[in-house]
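Hi support team,

I'm opening this ticket because the web form for multi-chain structure prediction keeps timing out on my end. I have pasted the exact lines I submitted so you can reproduce it. The total is 332 residues across two entries, so I didn't expect it to be a heavy job. Is there a limit I'm missing, or should I split the entries? Thanks in advance, R.K.
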Amino acid sequence: MRVEYINPFVTAVLSVFRTMLGTELVRGQPFVKGGFQPRHQISGVIGLSGKARGTIVLSLDRETALRATEVLTQEHRFTIDADVIDAVGELANMIAGSAKAKLEQFELSVSLPSVITGKGHCIEFPSNTTPICIPFDCEWGSVDVEVGLVELPVRSAVTSGVPVLA
Amino acid sequence: MRVEYINPFVTAVLSVFRTMLGTELVRGQPFVKGGFQPRHQISGVIGLSGKARGTIVLSLDRETALRATEVLTQEHRFTIDADVIDAVGELANMIAGSAKAKLEQFELSVSLPSVITGKGHCIEFPSNTTPICIPFDCEWGSVDVEVGLVELPVRSAVTSGVPVLA
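Hello R.K., no limit was hit. The queue was backed up. Here is the completed structure from your submission:
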């Protein structure tokens, strides 16, 4: 994944947390995650496709997910329930939507989010992609955003039926 | 999710397991999964987007994932490693590719797969979608395929910049 594609995702995460949750994230140093290291208890996963193929994983610790849901629903939260799932899915969705607007050269569209729970869960990418993990901290705890994005070769335009010669 | 959209996914799963792994799956009764029920140890997740938004989750028990990887790599497998991640990601990718060809009205493209591991992991969908889970059995163990697919309203064609009037 090319480094210049990281910034649209960083900007998207900062902006979504600021405008939707009223909290300022502090970005840490991006890194390439080693395999099979569980880092958080809840993760929103959403796909991007178009002239590139990608996946965004938004991972939150339990406390951060509960506090974020409280802000969105204006109700106290003590357990990971369907509202927390909706909140994390929607945050992933908004981050993807915001980042795709800044990567318009890829004409990306966004898939349906899914949300993973489970204390020891790990999210891996196929070995031919090198996703970048961007860690953030906020007043409630920590947040990771992992992004894999692979540009499609030009011949994909032919196989997908898009005319390349007018 | 409309029932007529299930068949392309069932056909895709049966076909991918038959042609790539040489094993015949037996389909069980599709159902709507209750929340927070871990069912398998490893899951491939892949997004679909276009005139609909979707996500496919291919979940395998440990033994099935190891045996499937053995067939694909021609090497014995005893633990969930990077090759197993690649195998599960690629199976999810092939199922998505095969199903999208049968749902051409939605002009779907496929995101990058990700693969979830962890004994107690659960994969949830936002509450405004009702994904269908299709259980299968094979000689090695059990396989679930869960599909959520939401048609986009026609106005999305306008907001996404596709001309609706020639």
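A quick check on our side: The two ends of chain B are 31 Å apart (CA to CA). Let us know if the file doesn't open in your viewer.
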